[in-house]
TrEMBL record:
The keyword Transmembrane does not apply. Gene3D superfamilies: Tetracycline Repressor, domain 2 (1.10.357.10). This is TetR family transcriptional regulator. PANTHER family: HTH-TYPE TRANSCRIPTIONAL REGULATOR BETI, HTH-TYPE TRANSCRIPTIONAL REGULATOR RUTR. The keyword Membrane does not apply. Keywords: DNA-binding, Repressor, Transcription, Transcription regulation. Residues 8-68 form the HTH tetR-type domain. It comes from Streptomyces wadayamensis. Residues 31-50 bind DNA.
């Protein structure tokens, strides 16, 4: 294997370890030393791959997006339901994403710009999905652009409720109920 390939493999190991540590402790309490220890590196060795904690955080967020990458033009309402199903099988990743999202609302958080940009894209994608499913007006009269932030809020809000009490909140069933509430079954 080439040096570049080994470097990329090592970066992937570091990113997965960082995801675990952040999931367990939150970003602020996660340390570079804890991540380095998980992958059998010194902190200095970790800094060779990620020069700052902020660079590591951005790497984790970008890697998560790559792990979940689906061509944007292929999204439909039924695929959103499948995404919710999929997320229910990955509580550690959902927990990490949710913790980082919650922490990022502070003005000085290094992931604030990432999440702000990400949500702008997600809202536009959701509006496109809703337009494809319902046209220019949803059954209640809202435009896809008006309903898109509500759809995102339902998805993220269900994740928080599920993480807090998975026995009481069936995230996948609740999301399907929400789709019914929109006025029609999700397309199959």
């Amino acid at each position: 294997m080439s040096r570049g390939g080994r470097n990329e493999d090592r970066r992937g190991e570091i990113l997965r370890a960082a995801l675990e540590v952040i999931s367990e402790r939150g970003y602020r309490a996660a340390s570079l030393a804890a991540v380095a220890e998980r992958v059998g590196l010194t902190q200095q060795g970790l800094l060779h791959h990620f020069p700052t904690k902020e660079a590591l955080l951005v790497g984790v967020l970008e890697a998560r997006d790559q792990w979940d990458a689906t061509p944007r033009e292929s999204w439909r309402l039924d695929l959103l339901a499948a995404l919710v199903d999929y997320n229910a099988t990955r509580p550690a990743i959902v927990r990490t994403f949710s913790a980082l999202l919650g922490e990022s609302v502070t003005g000085d958080h290094p992931a604030r710009a990432y999440f702000s940009g990400r949500y702008a894209v997600v809202r536009a994608d959701m509006a496109a999905i809703l337009r494809t499913a319902y046209g220019e007006r949803l059954p209640g009269g809202l435009t896809p652009e008006q309903a898109a932030p509500l759809l995102v809020a339902v998805m993220d809000g269900l994740q928080y409720q599920w993480l807090l009490d998975p026995e009481a909140v069936d995230m996948t069933a609740a999301f399907r109920d929400f789709l019914v509430l929109l006025g029609k079954e999700p397309p199959s």
